Amino acid sequence: MKLEGAYDPKLFESRIYEEWTDSGYFNPDNLPGLRKENYIVYMPLPNVTGSLHMGHTLDNTFQDIVIRYHRMRGYKTLWLPGTDHAGIATQYVVEKQLKKEGINRFELGREKFIERVWEWKKEYGGIILSQLQKLGCSADWSRTRFTMDPEYASDVQNIFIEYYKKGLLYRGFRTVNWCTRCGTSLSELELEHKEEETKLWYIKYSDEIVVATTRPETMLGDTAIAVNPNDERFRRLVGKTVVVPIVNREIPIVADVMIDMNFGTGAVKVTPAHDSVDFEIGERHKLPMIQVIDAYGKMTKEAGSKHEGKKARDVREEIVKELEELKLITRIEPYTHNVAICYRCNTTIEPIPSAQWFLKMKSLASNAMEAVRSKAVIIHPERFEKPYFDWLSNIRDWTVSRQIWWGHRLPVYFCETEKQKLAGNQQQEQFVVAKEKPKECPFCKKCEMEQSPDVLDTWFSSALWPFAGMSESDKKNYYPGNTLITARDILNLWVARMIYSGLEFKEEVPFKDVLIHGTIMTKDGKRMSKSLGTGIDPLKYIEQYGADVTRFAVVWQATGQDIRWDETAVVGGKKFLNKLWNAAKYVASNRQLATSNQQSEEKIPKGNTEVDKKIIDEINKLKKSVTEDIEKFEFSKALHDMYEFFWHSFCDEYIEVAKLQIQDEKQKEETQKILMYILSESLIMLHPFIPFITEVLWREGVKSKTPLIIEQWSH
RNA sequence: GGGCGAUUAGCUCAGCUGGUUAGAGCGUUACAUUGACAUUGUAAAGGUCACAGGUUCGAGUCCUGUAUCGCCCACCA
Questions:
Q1: Which of A308, A348, A474, A605 is most buried, most CB within 10 Å of its CB?
Q2: How does pLDDT run across A177-234, given as a tens digit for each residue?
Q3: pLDDT, tens digit (0-9, with 9 covering 90-100), for A267-287
Q4: Residues A606, A610, A616, A622: is their CA dihedral positive or negative?
């Protein structure tokens, strides 16, 4: 194509991307030259349900910058893309689709339902990746993985089995966070919190024991009263018993450090089955568990025939009324507190006891902390180390099993005979952890064993992203990687888990640098959210202004703090790229034929005049600082500096003087060389940031035979 | 309840280890221009750097406190 007219990305962006794809340079195995060192970036996997939003745009532009930069520096660069099956999220989407058709997943059945999800994935699962291609991302698409690929699934199962063999994975019957709508357990990181106005009811258990509670209905499952061991008021009562009103059950009074003497009355009712703190107190004091609420949020038989089958929420009122009649409510206070809700459907979480699989976190967490403490992994900026350490040092065992259908089914097989015999007591089942279903049940020798219906927490499989599902040779040649770039919200959810998984199974941290960048918010500082209608669609910018302008606008603003999205940065980008386009057009029109010869000995012109020397000196300094900035992940600063140099020093000052110098035959050739030199160097430096326009100008203006994508950063 | 971040021109933001008239993009004003570029050039207006103390020869930059906004984390029932 000819360099003419104004800058119009529509004329070349898609064509250039195709050429890059055809060249194979996104794949490290195809890169020319002697490349000894790897440089690997792991793409934070977008959910298959996702479509490109501003967060992805920033995230992936940053990743593309480091990848393109290192490719030009002569590394074997590999950017590993893929998508996450996103268990609950995807299941939820397909369930909604079914709902429109008037059926639910249970009517469809597990197998049919999963087929439906796969169909959905086939149709929509690739959208986000093609949008990333529009953005110009130079990931190695030939290595695209999906966390439910057969190879990936196989690795996930192997890891599960390995954990089990190491004794780090166990089956337990414990009080877990339960979403009654999704019908599954959730880890604490999958919870959100919302403020709720409620009441604090003071209930009299005896003359000396009054407890304050927000959930009177759970008293039906009380198995103790707890007080702080240092609380003088109750010291003499510890070890004695008290009777639970209404149910008339005698329960002990125990002392536990968990109890805050200053809250309420200082005495707490303990319901191990329906509160995770109470569960722990129960374990310490060997208290029985009485489950009065079931998996649907309804009262169980244990709650008494009067309440059985009713919604827990309704029973609350009834209990209060009953207690009032017995004159056992001594006080009611208005009270505001946070309740946990399901991150996916916002349903209030109901802690209930349930048989689940748990990963022991103590050693894994301490390995992950050591990795950062020893600087094997460096978190940038440093302040994000604190939330990382805080979470890991207070960690509890991870509930990894989920009661949904879409996901990695556990490689666990139950004895059906035992199960029948022990119906109703889930703590005593018999099972085998194995990759394949055993031919013969080792327990009863006669039953057809059945695979556990549970699937794994999605994050269990994404924690293995740096190696799972890769070919054997890739596993060997492309681990560990170098850099992970992401937003702060998945630091613990994902990053920490990749670090200890890598250490556990590959004996090495998966990456050295973790860059946590700011979050893009609306101009008035609100979170961008599709459901709130506050989201801004980057595809709109890509469509209207091109990918380069979009990337420019994002990087321009991404200084490290959270970003209040400002449209004017897009305008600035558009103007700058137009400036770049026109300057290149001018320089190309003044091409000095002798210098188009790439063999030219003299790569760096010396210059005759003061302005010549000044501009050469300036760009050489700029090259150095941009290089350093990229190494330090200071992308925005690098872009601002290049902008300043190119527009004001080069275009406004040098080119204007050059026009005069070219009139002088003695200076003409050197001036033209300098123009071309500055343009070339500028294109090289700008390429990681705005790859399309620079590639086009490189070919059409500089007339280089080497594509810019693999041009050397410095000679 | 704890932690972190922010508070600098009309808007969105830079300003590293404290040092001459505090910078950028966008916007605004005046003039210029068909010569790479009107998605332009030149020039200009616009800030008591949230507030109060302190350290210092000197503070937007360090310390203490206050206020406002935002974000995380939390087992005060």
A1: A605
A2: 999 988 899 988 888 888 888 888 999 998 889 999 999 999 999 999 999 998 888 8
A3: 999 999 999 999 999 999 999
A4: positive
Give the pLDDT mean for A162-179: 94
Handedness of CA A545, A546, A550, A556 (dihedral sign): negative
Pick out residues 631-650 of chain A having their CB under 7 A from any atom of nucleic acid strand B. 637, 640, 643-644, 647
- Give the nearest nucleotide to A3, CA to C1': B36
Q: Name the nt closest to A488 by C-alpha to C1'.
A: B72
Contact yes or no for A413/A432 (Cβ under 8 A):
yes
A58 in contact with nucleic chain B (CB within 7 A): no
Which residues in window 387-406 of A are less than 7 A from strand B by Cβ? Answer: 387, 390-391, 394
Is the model's pLDDT at A594 over the cut of 60?
A: no
Residue A367, φ and ψ in degrees, nearest 5: -65, -40
Residue A123 in tokens: 């149709």
A194 contact to strand B (CB, 7 A limit): no
Cβ contact A585 with chain B strand, < 7 A:
yes
Structure tokens at A564: 């209040």
Give the amino acid at A537: D
Distance A520 CA to B60 C1' (A): 26
Any alpha helices (H) in A546-664, and if so which ranges?
547-557, 568-589, 610-631, 635-643, 656-661
Please report the ipTM that was assigned to this predicted complex.
0.95
| In A334-454, alpha helices (H) | 362-373, 385-393, 416-421
